[in-house]
Amino acid sequence: METIYIPHLLTKTERKEVIDFEEIIPDLETLTPVRGRLQVTHQGNFLEVKAKAETIVTLTCHRCLKQYNHRLRLQSSEIIWLEEKPNQHDASSGEFEIDLENLVENLSPTDSFSPSDWVYQQLCLELPHKQLCDTKCPGIDFNEDAETESSETISDSRWASLAALKRQLP
Prior knowledge:
With 170 residues, this protein is of the alpha+beta class. The protein has helices at residues 6-9, 115-126, 142-151, 160-168; strands at 4-5, 16-23, 34-42, 46-60, 67-82, 106-107, 112-113. The relative contact order is 0.18.
């Protein structure tokens, strides 16, 4: 997706641009291209950004460590304020105070908006925090691993001490 020069939105019909897209986002590992629709509307002193998109990603289960496919759906909207950047703080001291009002996304009214970057950020926020292949995933079966390990001969002598210690445990 091409970047949108914000002043050009003012010349468009209804001050908005609608983009239907199907593309691979470089920093997001997906099995299918990200498909969706993005709408950016200039509302005077802010941009209203809305998007619907979906793709399929491969995740690793946090319990059993198996990989599984997950359909990632995005239905998001955000307001991005258009204002010149406030005075930059001196970061050399390492500390500076930020007002709660400054914890919002903003762009310069003469800047550009990157739809690909915005969609990437929104999809990353949609990734599940708890990645489970199944709600009833039992996790790693340690008993099965112990049985196969004891029946096999240890091919690396560095593990012999650990195997001896393991046999001493009840």
